[in-house]
Amino acid sequence: MPVEKQRVTIEDRMGGRDNHFNLIRFVAALAVLVTHSFALSSGHRENQPLWTTYGMTPGSIAVDVFFVTSGFLVCHSLFSRQNLLEFAAARALRILPALWVVLAITVVLVGPTLTTLNLGDFARSHETWRYVIKNASIVSGMAPTLPGVFEHNAMARLVNSSLWTLYHEVWLYACLCTYWILAGLIWNRRVPWVSRLILLSCFVAAVLTVYSRLTGWHYQWPRLAFAFFTGASFYVLRGKIKLSGVTACVLALALTIASVQRDVFYVVYSAAVGYLVLFAAYARATPLLAFNRLGDYSYGVYIYGFLVQQLLVNAFPGIGTGPLMAASIIATLVCGMASWHLIEKPALSKKAWVSARINPSR
Q: What domain count does the chain have?
């Protein structure tokens, strides 16, 4: 009798580093850059691909992908460490050093060079300090403008709008930490109760996401929370969710069929995106694993992309979408590679040192 082929779960594929998360996030970062090229070259957001058809763009889909992968990997980090200080330190080392460098470059070099104000007024401006403080601390939202900078660009005065997602991501980390604290204080059984709270959060965020879409309630938080807690839920259920090419194909077919109607497509997309991202992350595509040897350039590409594109638009007024896209991809890749090798990788190498001081018994 033929032996039944064993179905593989997410947990079965999680050992080691044989996954495509780096590549997926890199492609997502490029998708954001490509999408922004249409708006930044024309000055009209509605020129972005898929916007008029589906009310979403490749860039917004890419952001969802970021949050799904973040929810999965961050939940894994918290459950593995089981120490909030270690977890927070690891998150800070991943996000803050590279962010602070791009902010320093923006405020110390770009701003003074391009502002229409004199340097004294620029340095003393409340808007300048607001940009530094809000964007460096993340927790109180994003400040999008610097005084007198990019005033004549098609998308006037916006400096680095991509940073808006970091605020939401950090608060979602805070949600996980709050669940961890509550589970310890109330139930004294952290992992099972945090898992339940994650699944509940995913359900509530799903309902709010569909409601906001169908009623025109334009608010980003439910959508991003749903993507994040979808990823976290896949981690919680990692031993039960099977990775199946058939299931992935069925979901892709369902998306294709649903694409004829905007709202139906969004509902199907919301249900399918998490599984498709995790399936792609653990797909048996061995040649693509070579990408992991290059490094994780996605974060650098993401935090420099918008700024680089605005600099190009400022330097070459009237630049078309295609030239802007091509030039910005090359320039941003250089920035992303430099950020990884000079800032992010050295910062991440300190994680073990920090963990040893927070938790000497580990």
A: 1
